[in-house]
Amino acid sequence: MTVFTDLIAGYRRFRQQGWATQRDRWATLAEGQSPRVMVIACSDSRTDPTTVFDTSPGEIFVVRNVANLVPPFEVGGGRHGVSAALEFAVTQLKVQEIVVMGHGMCGGVYAAMTKRFAEATPGEGGFIANWIGLLDEARDRITTDHGTGEDAIRALELETVKVSIANLRTFTFVRAAEDAGQLSLHGAWFSIKEGVLWVMGEDGAFAPAS
Fold first, then answer.
1. How far apart, in whole angstroms, are the C-alpha atoms of residue 42 and residue 68?
2. From 7, 47, 53, 156, which residue has the greatest number of CB atoms within 10 Å?
3. What is the CATH code for 33-208?
C-alpha cells in the first residue's frame, strides 16, 4: 500500500472478509477490551507486532514509537504519551505482561549511534534527537566495547530493549504490580532480514524463540 486509495481498498476487503466473517467477535469487542499483553514496539513499518505475533484485534494493547523506547518516570514538562498508555494498560486494563520488542535495522538506533541529528532543530530532526537521547548512556557504553560498526549497532538495538525495561521499573505502579506477581516484563528483538524473533532471558541474553 502506498496511497490513501490503497488503504480504502484494503478497508473494503476487511469489511467483506475480516469483519463480515467475524461479526460475533467484533460485537464482543464493541463491549470493551481486555487484552492480557501490552507490546511496546517501534514505529518502523516493517515490524508490526500484530503481524510478528500473529494476533487478532483485541488481543494486545500496542504502543509504537521511534526505537521502541520507554522514558523514565517524570512529571511536568510536556505531554507523556507513552507514560499515559502505560498507566492505562497497567492500572485500568490490568495487563499481565508487557513486551518490549526491538528490531534489526532500526533507524532510531542508527541515528543514536551516529549522532545524526545531534545539532538539528525541531522540524529538521531535533525532535528525533531529543527522543533518542534516552540512548546516550547506552551508546557510550557500547561504543567503548564494540566501536561503531554493525556489531555495535546490533548491540545497541538489544540494549535499547533493556533500557526500556529498566525505565518501566521507574514507574511505581509497574513495580508494584510486578512485585505483587500480577505483571511480568519481557524483552524481544525481531530480525527483519531473517524473520526470527529473539527473546531475552532472565540473564539478559537474547536467543531465538523456540
1. 4
2. 156
3. 3.40.1050.10
